Amino acid sequence: MGKAQKYVLLGDVTYPLQDWILKPYQEDETLTQQQLQFNYRLKRAHSVIENAFLRLKARWQILLKCDDCSLELLPTLVLACCILHNICEAHDNPFNEEWLEGTELTELPKPCQPAPAAMEDGQAEQVRELMCQYFESCGEG
């Protein structure tokens, strides 16, 4: 699109729009087809991420009870699990679907109210608009 962009995190509507947090447009009857497509693609990407974290937690169930280790060790533990998980995935190490049992019950609560508008970054709308245009230029998918 002619403008370099930095990395962004994907959030849902409860997160404030920031130039580093990409969130969907608020669903209402005024959304354009382009914005609806953007929301759809963002939702698909978000589900891929959720599935990856679900598989990570299922394979390395120590992540479900991180209260067993010190706070100083926690970042190293999470990083080690991510690295080992990626190695297993890259080498097609079999994933046992039974590992998924019990992982959904440990979901952390998420905010149910959108972030106040005052927390939103005015420049972030330009980032979202660029991404929206980019998604449209990529065609169907």
UniProtKB/TrEMBL annotation:
Domain called DDE Tnp4: residue spans: 5-86
Any Gene Ontology CC annotation: nucleus
Keyword Nucleus: yes
Primary location recorded for the protein, binned into one broad class: nucleus
Signal peptide range in chain numbering: none
Annotated keywords: Hydrolase, Metal-binding, Nuclease, Nucleus
Cofactor requirement: a divalent metal cation
Pfam families with a match to the protein in the record: DDE_Tnp_4
Coiled-coil portions: none
Entry annotated with the keyword Iron: no
InterPro entries found in the cross-reference section: HARBI1-like, HARBI1_dom
Location within or outside the cell: Nucleus
Single annotated GO MF: hydrolase activity
Highest taxon in the source lineage: Eukaryota
Family that this chain belongs to: Belongs to the HARBI1 family.
Protein's name in the database: ALP1 protein
Organism: Eubucco bourcierii (red-headed barbet)
Lineage summary: Eukaryota, Metazoa, Chordata, Craniata, Vertebrata
